[in-house]
Design goal:
heterodimer, A: two-stranded antiparallel ribbon, B: Rossmann fold
């Protein structure tokens, strides 16, 4: 295949414990470490392995977000992507907007395969890939843990509640990836230097002429309910007693 | 009276309990008139089971050979056709619904409200973000169908015993042939299903190996529990991914949850915070799991767990 397009979302690093602002206006993201959404990193790793096997010509990474998302795209280039596209938007976008933007880029780039993470760990929506597949009118294979390409098709094993489901899809297709697909590589210093010379195009979102979707309105942010403090027991015997008292065994 | 269309999940025969939980969410919408759509190749018990769910007005029995397997690409256009004048279209936030519902939402030109925890009013819901570190209240726009997935751990199944009308429906939507089911490999299923079990025992990285997980299975089997694992244990290859409990795995709400050798990373706690009683056994008294546990025991799991199995 000629080209794989990979989505890289800039998201709060997975090690950060996010807190709701005191005034309930949002979550505290000032000065917080930002990274590539970890599932998207797995998507990129898979694309790079496909290219390294000689099954794809080029890997293009796409991010939709503020100018700062260039950092995540540079990391993607350092991992090995050939070029990067930033669709710059300084406002928060809902998933359908992102899918429409992705679709506009897919029409320009005509990828044979689009790879994304199965969800972003900020909004936990798990929507963009499926929505892109719908409006692009192409197959989707979500939660992929194995991907085999050949003959204009992809065989994708999916992690579903009932076990492992395998489906076959015609290309081009949208595949969203799960944790166990691969383990992403570490970026080496020389690669970071090399990445600075790779092409990174910025497209203002207005230039794509996307119709914006009917927005979901967030009216309140609240911290989760805390669980009541529990008791510590000193032995297995006491534990069994406590469970009996609660009528649980 | 708002019309709600619920998309049933089933395995070709039995209705999945996630459907009764999705109906519970639908019933929380003021004055809801609830239809449940069952897509299948040959009906089966699922249709009758859906018709027996309380609060359901009508079951739409959509039989077609193409519906033998739940493929989002073929189901979504049929759902859009059925959605017609529906105000809400809801599915469960299981891998079935997570795969399918965004495709439906996009075809309807709307955003989806994922993982609905509560219904707060007309078109208004709460849902978790950032692994449950924040709960947002979201309002879907007027004049558009609301598409949502229902966080099953937040809802109790509606009772059975109703008798909704069953209507056979033949959708006319053109369906794509670009996506084909090949096979499903199920995990061994002698134990209760993790997602719906009333008791769950989970193991973490401290187990140290796949072999050592046998003490977790022994305890689970003694008390008739499902078995789960932390992401760390899954990452380490001790157990398969479908046992993972947490933000990116299964979100569960058993009456009793026993976490063994699990430190309690936030992404794991997200998956269990609706559990009735959380028991933690861990060697490290500083482990964050003890902050959420109802009963905690600081002990070496390799001696404490067999002893517990023995005493129960």
């Amino acid at each position: 295949m000629e080209r794989i397009l990979v989505g890289l979302k800039r998201a709060v690093d997975y090690n950060v414990r996010v807190r709701v602002r005191g005034d309930g206006s949002g979550v505290e993201t000032d000065g917080v470490k930002m990274s590539i959404n970890p599932f998207d990193e797995i998507a990129l790793e898979e694309a790079l392995r496909i290219r390294e096997r000689g099954e794809a010509g080029e890997v293009v990474v796409l991010s939709i977000g503020p100018a700062d998302a260039q950092q995540q795209l540079r990391t993607g280039l350092a991992m090995g992507a050939d070029r990067a596209i930033l669709v710059q938007s300084d406002t928060e976008l809902d998933a359908l907007d992102r899918a429409r933007i992705f679709h506009a880029v897919a029409r320009r780039e005509t990828p044979d395969l689009v790879l994304l993470g199965k969800q972003a760990i900020d909004d936990d929506n798990s929507q963009t890939g499926q929505m892109l597949a719908a409006i692009w009118d192409r197959p989707q294979a979500t939660f992929a843990s194995k991907l085999v390409l050949g003959d204009g098709k992809a065989s994708v094993t999916r992690e579903v509640d009932a076990g492992l489901e395998t489906i076959e899809v015609d290309l081009p297709a949208v595949v969203t990836v799960d944790l166990r697909l691969n383990e992403p590589r570490y970026v080496k210093l020389p690669d970071i230097m090399k990445a600075k010379k790779k092409p990174l195009d910025t497209i203002p979102v207005e230039d794509l002429g996307i119709e914006s979707s009917p927005a979901l309105e967030v009216t309140r942010y609240a911290p989760p309910d805390a669980r009541k403090k529990g008791v510590m027991v000193g032995s297995v015997g006491e534990l069994v007693e406590a469970l009996k008292q609660k009528g649980l065994v | 009276m708002p019309k709600v269309l619920v998309i049933a999940e089933h395995d070709g025969e039995q209705l999945n309990p996630s459907t009764a939980k999705t109906v519970a969410c639908a019933a929380a919408i003021d004055g809801a008139d609830i239809d449940v759509a069952v897509f299948s190749a040959a009906g089966g018990a699922a249709v009758a089971q859906a018709a027996a769910l309380s609060s359901v007005a009508r079951v739409l029995d959509v039989q077609a050979p193409v519906n033998a397997h739940a493929l989002a690409a073929t189901l979504a256009p049929q759902i859009v056709e059925l959605a017609g004048d529906a105000d809400y279209v809801l599915g469960p936030s299981t891998t079935f619904g997570k795969d399918l519902m965004p495709r439906v939402a996009a075809l309807l030109g709307v955003n989806q409200v994922s993982d609905i925890m509560t219904v707060e009013g007309e078109r208004t819901f709460t849902r978790p973000i950032y692994a449950g570190n924040a709960i947002i209240t979201v309002r879907a726009p007027e004049g558009h169908t609301v598409v949502g997935t229902v966080r099953t751990a937040s809802w109790q199944e509606v009772a059975s015993g109703g008798s909704a009308a069953v209507e056979s429906v033949t959708p006319g939507a053109a369906l794509p042939g670009h996506t084909r089911f090949v096979e499903l490999q199920s995990g061994d299923s002698d134990r209760p299903d993790l997602q719906t079990a009333s008791r769950v025992v989970s193991g973490g990285r401290a187990l140290g190996s796949a072999d050592n997980f046998s003490i977790i299975y022994a305890l689970a089997d003694k008390i008739g529990a499902g078995v789960g694992a932390s992401r760390a244990a899954v990452d380490a290859g001790y157990v398969p991914n479908d046992m993972q409990v947490g933000q990116t795995g299964k979100i569960i709400a058993p009456d009793l949850y026993i976490a063994i050798g699990i430190s309690g990373a936030i992404q794991h706690l997200t998956g269990i915070k609706d559990a009735g009683t959380i028991v933690a056994i861990n060697k490290d008294e500083e482990a964050p799991i003890f902050e959420v546990a109802d009963i905690g025991l600081v002990a070496d799991l390799f001696t404490a767990v067999p002893e517990l199995t023995d005493k129960l």
